[in-house]
Here is the input.
Amino acid sequence: MSSNLAIKLRSGTQQAHTSAETFMKCFLQGVVDRDCNAQVLKQLVLRLQRTRSGIRELYRASCD
Here is the structure.
């Protein structure tokens, strides 16, 4: 069952990983424009906030 989950996660996130790798290659070569970089940073901040929120909820639930 866990291997099935791993397969689903890998296939479900493949496009996102490919996009991230492409972005990083361009970023390291200095080809990413300022607006694109700002958009990526905004997305990362949003993901970080959601992750922190989820961790807080799990922590609170475990303390009850």
Observations:
- The two ends are 30 Å apart (CA to CA).
- The chain has a mean pLDDT of 86.
- The longest helix spans residues 34-63.
- Residues 15 and 21 are 10 Å apart (CA to CA).
